[in-house]
């Protein structure tokens, strides 16, 4: 199809603002999907996506639409993930487009994730079409929200489309705006091939299926391709388009969006952001912006039953086929035996992987408290990276410990200004500046250590602001601080899975809170169990789990006192021996206690 009849666009929105529902209506109006095959959130194929109301996996679909002028257009919708953890995939998907629909909830208005994705779209130089959704809600404020968008983007209020994706009202206007306002793609069909991979998934029969946007040249199934970042070469199993299911074609021309079934058995060979070119006639330079997904949060994942170790390894390998951002390596723990150290893009990504392991692979797992990757500068000048507190070297060998810091933006009604400021300053956050996009809402910009952000920051933010605040974050840099390892000893043995790296000023408070929680959680034994927290080489808190007592004198009624002493002495020796060889069973709840230190 001629370039002037192609439109590539994405839909950007905050979580639960109606992005997937709008995509459903566009598919219906353009007759891409029949009424019989229509389901709610048709592009969200995972159960978790439907339950959580958030797109986890990007998807693409081609719609054929005949406009009022009688011309037929190819509309390529590239649906993007809706959570900050998947920001890199969103940026690549936006680079594959020329325009974006900015969907804003008529009741909730502009939120942090809306702004984050909007700035990303503006950086990619996309044409922004603002759309106010859910105008049929009783709490809808479409005119006020239109003013908010006007203040933010400068779009005249009368050009902002007001729709209800649920009922389908004004969807035709959206299609007309896409054709009129989104520019057609540019590119040279005679130049060497350059096609951007903006997402991929694994198919057991076709291998890794790469979702591509062709910028220059064209793709034919008989060509031999090369990937410019990894250097891998391949002959495709199949090429085609999404409509919305995979449909094989004979060619993908300049400006078009489709897929290449590579036959690769690992997503690592075919990464998001890489560029396809022809092996026989390669392009001079790849498309810009490629980078490897970098895990930010790490946690140990262990099977509850040691016999499930092999099943857990197979499950992680299969998940990694669809998700190249997941990294894992085997690790052992004194308390939890054999398991894996896994790296995730963020806490939401970790939650998704955990739920998929439990649901799709029927595994019972224990996940340790999440931690971040630290940089440790040693006395000999060497710099090492550690992602588990148990790996931190002895204090005498360390020159300084650096931790990752994040830039965060919190969008909140002005009445919760004080609540947000107090929460962030408690977590070692630094105030940067503030903006007022609208008179009654404020955007507060802070810098905060990632370790303070990953555990329960979002929960406290939502409860403190009654759910009205929203949060977005980006990586800033590594900074040195006075950090120490908080060790937990149970029955004088260090439990590596309970260790944490904390700020020295917080060590005493956190150690005391953790010991108090563990005292309640660890069951009583036939001997007293000491629980200790140590930091910086000294014990800072201790509590004892009392022994279960047995009345050994019950059978000694009357008689000589020496008989009683003999029995008590025998019991004392038995307890001492038991204490030296006895094992303390630590329940699962104890490993989650680290997550709930602030609850009291």
Concise account of the structure shown:
By secondary structure, the protein is an alpha+beta fold. It is built from 14 helices and 29 strands.
Secondary-structure map:
Layout lengths: L5 E8 L5 H11 L17 H6 L6 E8 L5 E8 L7 H9 L3 E7 L6 H12 L3 E7 L8 H12 L7 E2 L8 H11 L12 E10 L3 E10 L8 E3 L5 E2 L3 E5 L3 E3 L8 E5 L13 E4 L18 E7 L5 H14 L4 E7 L3 E8 L2 H14 L4 E3 L6 E5 L4 E4 L11 E16 L3 H10 L3 E9 L2 E9 H4 L3 H8 L5 E12 L1 E8 L2 E2 L5 E4 H18 L7 E7 L2 E8 L15 H21 L6 H5 L8
Verbal overview:
The chain has 600 residues and is α+β, with helices and mostly antiparallel strands. The protein folds into five domains: 3-181, P-loop containing nucleotide triphosphate hydrolases (Rossmann fold, 3-Layer(aba) Sandwich), CATH 3.40.50; 194-278, Elongation Factor Tu (Ef-tu), domain 3, CATH 2.40.30; 297-370, Alpha-Beta Plaits; 375-481, Alpha-Beta Plaits (2-Layer Sandwich), CATH 3.30.70; 486-596, Alpha-Beta Plaits (2-Layer Sandwich). Helix content is 26%, strand content 32%. The strands form five sheets. The chain has an eight-stranded antiparallel sheet. A hairpin with a 5-residue loop joins strand 9 (225-227) and strand 10. The chain is elongated. The model has no long low-confidence stretch (mean pLDDT 80).
